[in-house]
Write a structure and sequence with these properties.
- By secondary structure, the chain is mainly α.
- Helix content is 62%, strand content 6%.
- The chain contains 8 helices and 3 strands.
- Helix 1 crosses helix 2 and helix 2 packs across helix 7.
Length: 213
C-alpha cells in the first residue's frame, strides 16, 4: 500500500529546495494527484517514500576558500608595505653617473624630425580614409561561440520554465472544470428527484407542491 502525504506546492518546493514552478512541474511529471481541501487550498498527494528519499539525500556544501584565496588582514598589509617598497627600489637599475662637465643637448636637437610626406593631397586623404576604415573594422571583435552557447542555454531554460507554467495552468483549469461538471450533475440529480416527488403527490397536497417548488 502506497502511503501519501498531502502537501501544498510551497511545502513541496521547500522540501525539494527548488522554486515554486519547478516543484509544480515535478508533481505534474510524476502524475501526482491535485485536489482541494475543505478550505479550498490546492493539495498535492506526494508518496511518503519519495519524501523519505529526499530527507536522506545529502545537502550540498559550499567549497572552503584556500588560504591563498582569503583576503589579507589590515595588519598584514601594513607590515608588507615597507618590504614591497624596498624590493621595488632594489629592482630598479641604478642611474649611470655623469661627469661634472657634461652638458645636455638642447631639446630641439634631440627631438625627432617630422617626416615630410611628398605624396599629393588626394593620395594622402585616401590613405587616411583607408586607415580609419581598418581601425573601425578591427575595433569590433567577432561574437564568440561560448557567448552564443550561453545565450542559447538561457533561452532554453526560459522556454522550459514557460512550458511548465502553461502545463500547470492547464492542469488546474482541467481540475476546476471537473469540479464544475460534478456540481452541475449533482444539482440536476436533486432537481429530477424533486420533480418526480411532485408528480407522485396527490392533488390534495397543494401546499407541499408549493413548498417543493
Amino acid at each position: 500500500m502506497i502511503v501519501e502525504r498531502k502537501l501544498t506546492a510551497e511545502e513541496l518546493a521547500e522540501i525539494l529546495r527548488v522554486p515554486l514552478e519547478a516543484a509544480r512541474a515535478v508533481a505534474i511529471r510524476n502524475e501526482w494527484r491535485f485536489e482541494r481541501d475543505r478550505r479550498g487550498r490546492l493539495r498535492i498527494s506526494v508518496p511518503d517514500q519519495f519524501l523519505k528519499a529526499q530527507a536522506a539525500a545529502p545537502r550540498p556544501q559550499g567549497r572552503r576558500a584556500a588560504p591563498s584565496e582569503m583576503p589579507a588582514s589590515p595588519k598584514r598589509k601594513a607590515a608588507s608595505a615597507p618590504v614591497a617598497a624596498a624590493e621595488a627600489t632594489a629592482a630598479r637599475p641604478a642611474a649611470k653617473a655623469r661627469p661634472s662637465n657634461h652638458r645636455s643637448p638642447p631639446a630641439a636637437a634631440t627631438a625627432p624630425k617630422a617626416e615630410t610626406d611628398s605624396r599629393p593631397p588626394q593620395r594622402r586623404a585616401e590613405s587616411g580614409a583607408g586607415a580609419g576604415a581598418r581601425e573601425a573594422t578591427e575595433a569590433v571583435p567577432p561574437p564568440s561561440k561560448e557567448a552564443g552557447r550561453q545565450d542559447a542555454f538561457s533561452l532554453q531554460v526560459r522556454v522550459s520554465s514557460l512550458e511548465s507554467q502553461i502545463e500547470t495552468l492547464l492542469k488546474l483549469a482541467l481540475l476546476e472544470r471537473q469540479r464544475a461538471e460534478e456540481a452541475i450533475a449533482e444539482r440536476n440529480h436533486w432537481r429530477d428527484l424533486a420533480e418526480r416527488l411532485i408528480e407522485a403527490l396527490p392533488d390534495s397536497s397543494s401546499w407541499l407542491r408549493r413548498w417543493l417548488h
